[in-house]
Amino acid sequence: MCGGKGTRMQASKEKLLLTYKNPIIQHVISALQGSGCFAKIVAATSHNAPRTREFLTNLGVFTMDTAGKGYVYDLNHILHNFDESVFVISGDLPLLDSEIIKQIVQKTNTSNPWTTVLISKEFLDSLYLKQEYTVIYNKKQYSYCGISIVDPTKLTDMKSVDESYIILDDKRIALNLNTKEDYDLLCAS
């Protein structure tokens, strides 16, 4: 998923093209490719990030346009195009590497239609990271990290579905760049 506006970043450059050694989106693409877990990488882009789409195309990554109406809307729209399990990941995880992707794939129960990776609030607090979207699971607070494994063939009309969860407190998936403060923290490390 890499078609967002990135308005909370307050940057003149598209968020996924901000640099941390390499453009942020390149870290994600390299980790996916290096994992050896996927037959194809598809980047969901939109009119909100034309330079990101161009960058990905130049890397040889297949892009698929969405309406650019928001993460949930665009994800639901794009899932209709697949007839096998999809590893959904946000393009703004600069610390991602192939080993953490392999761990997530190994922990996934493929019989579940939707599996989401969560990080505990306590772990995020220990790293001084804040997340907007949280869920209570087993009486503890967790945050979404932007990774899900979805089997669209097991979904009916794309309405709400019970999620299963993988709890994984790991800094490689904890830092999700949403704000200028997140980027400043990344660059300070």
Give a brief rundown of this model.
It contains 7 helices and 9 strands. The chain has 189 residues and is of the alpha/beta class. The protein has one domain: Spore Coat Polysaccharide Biosynthesis Protein SpsA, Chain A (Alpha-Beta Complex).
Your description of this structure?
This protein is α/β, with parallel strands linked by helices and 189 residues long. It has one domain (7-188): Spore Coat Polysaccharide Biosynthesis Protein SpsA, Chain A (Alpha-Beta Complex), CATH 3.90.550. Helix content is 32%, strand content 22%. It has seven helices and nine strands; from the N terminus they run ββαβαβαβαβαβββαα. A hairpin with a 1-residue loop joins strand 1 (19-20) and strand 2. The chain is globular. The two termini are 25 Å apart.
SSE arrangement:
Layout: E1 19-20, E2 22-23, H1 24-35, E3 42-45, H2 50-59, E4 62-65, H3 71-79, E5 86-89, H4 98-107, E6 114-120, H5 121-126, E7 134-137, E8 140-150, E9 164-167, H6 171-174, H7 180-188
Parallel strand pairs: 3-4, 6-9
Antiparallel strand pairs: 1-2, 5-8, 6-8, 7-8
Helix pairs in contact: 1-4
